[in-house]
Each structure stands twice: as C-alpha cells, then as structure tokens.
Design goal:
The chain is α+β, with helices and mostly antiparallel strands and 270 residues long. Helix content is 37%, strand content 21%.
Length: 270
C-alpha cells in the first residue's frame, strides 16, 4: 500500500476519529457455516457477544442483513484505522496523541461546519462553458477542475462543486469552485482552483472573487484555499494535496493534541 503522507495533526485526528468510531461499532467478521455467516464478537448494545461467545447469523436472514451492513462498515473503518496507524509508526518513533474531539474552540466566524456543508446545494454556477468536461463524477468547467475533483476523491475528502456564496461586505454573489468537508473536525473550507490567468476575462473574474473573499474576512489557507495552477497542461498533484492538507492542519488547534505515555497500550488494544 502507498505510504500515507499527512501533516502530523491531521494524521493524529484521523487516527483518533476512527478509533472512537470503532469503540461504538459492533465488531465481527464473515465466514461460511453451511451458508454465508456474519459473526458478531462485540456489540456495545449487547454485552453477551464476546470473542469467546460470538453470535452467528446467516447473512440472508433479516437480522443477518442488518448486522452484515454494520460489520462491513466496521471492517472498512478498521482497515482505514490500521493503515493510518501503520503509516504513523513508519513516520514517527512515538505513539500518536489523544485528540480532544470534538474540537472545543476554533475561530469560525462564518459557522463553516458540517451542518453548513450539508445545507449547501452544488452545481449552482452561473457560467456554462461551451465545451464542458464530463466525467463519472459530474460536469466541470475545465480539465483542472476535473483532476481536482478526482484528487479530492483520492484523498477521501467529500466536496460539493460550485455552491453559491453571498458575501455581504462585498455585495457580491460568487460561485466557489469547491466546498470541502473536513468532517473529522466538523469544519469545511472553500477551494479555488486558479488557472488561465493569461486570459483577461478569467483573470479579472478571479481578482473580483479573491477581493470578495477578502472583504468578507474569509482567511486564506483556512476558510478558503487558493491553488494556483499556472500550467494548465500539467496538474501538480503534490502541490494541490499540500495546499489542501495544510489548510486542514491549520484548522486544528495545537492544544487539541494530548500526549500521554500510556497511549501505546490504548491504541494496540483497539
């Protein structure tokens, strides 16, 4: 598996978020016992289920289907957790910190949280290009935006394309390229993919958009991420990822991380 490269605070948040999810989920696995079977070894709502006394259910039964969905979800989250933890120990010589989730205090004047993200409607852009870029992920105005969407999907970051944003201080309605959901910390950020600055009309609209964000006090690198791609023929994925992860990292207060000596035992038992 390709090594995961994340800023330290983001990496720690992702580990802790999944560890806490796992604590609250039924645990188990699948096997064949005459028929496909789901085996439940732990259920927070039923302490009778243990690794020594598991519950066996055929997956084609009503209860089996219910638990199959829950165990599949558990296995997916557990795989993500194991991969993140393995990558952490390949990078650092110490255990990851405990993270105080949900984050208690972080400057957020625009209330850009998970609820904000969920309420926004996508594909609200006013400009319709003559030659749109069509893909399985949607219709985009440019190839760079398509690659940006594919890269965000690869990074595991949910997004919405071209939501509407009215900035009162600028008396301007703009169509941000993307709205990113940093769901693990209950925050979101706008993302602007800036290119084609050789075209006057595009450069002018970009200047207006950046000015509007500034007037509305949307902080660069936190509330809005600007990714300048000067060469439209070569999308710089490494640079793009660095800018996105950096913004995520900046939204995590340093004091949200609590370093404890007995952290190894807790993680290894998860």
């Amino acid at each position: 598996m390709k090594k995961i490269e994340l800023p330290m605070k983001v990496h720690a948040v992702k580990i802790e978020y999944r560890r806490r999810l796992i604590e609250q989920m039924p645990h188990g696995y699948f096997c064949i016992r005459r028929k496909p079977t789901v085996v439940i070894t732990f259920d927070p709502e039923n302490p009778k289920f243990t690794p020594r006394r598991p519950r066996y259910l055929f997956v084609n039964t009503k209860l089996g289907k219910k638990y199959s969905e829950l165990i599949n979800r558990y296995l997916d989250i557990k795989a993500e957790y194991d991969s993140l933890l393995k990558s952490w120990y390949e990078t650092y010589l110490f255990a990851p910190p405990e993270v105080n989730l949900p984050l208690k205090s972080s400057y957020n004047p625009h209330k850009m949280d998970k609820e904000y993200f969920d309420k926004k409607k996508d594909y609200q852009g006013r400009y319709v290009p003559e030659n749109p870029t069509v893909s399985d992920d949607g219709v985009f105005k440019s190839k760079n935006e398509l690659i940006a969407a594919d890269t965000l999907k690869e990074m595991g970051i949910p997004f919405k394309y071209e939501t509407k944003l009215y900035i009162n201080e600028a008396k301007e309605t703009i169509d941000p390229d993307f709205l990113l959901d940093f769901y693990e910390i209950d925050r979101c950020s706008y993302l602007e993919v800036l290119g084609m600055n050789d075209k006057f009309s595009y450069a002018a609209s970009t200047t207006v958009k950046i000015s509007s964000y500034s007037k509305g006090n949307y902080r660069p690198g936190r509330d809005v991420i600007y990714v300048h791609l000067y060469d439209k023929y070569n999308f710089d994925k490494a640079y793009f990822k660095k800018m996105v992860w950096s913004a995520y990292d900046c939204l995590i207060p340093d004091d949200a991380l609590a370093w404890k000596e007995d952290r190894n035992a807790l993680l290894l038992s998860s």
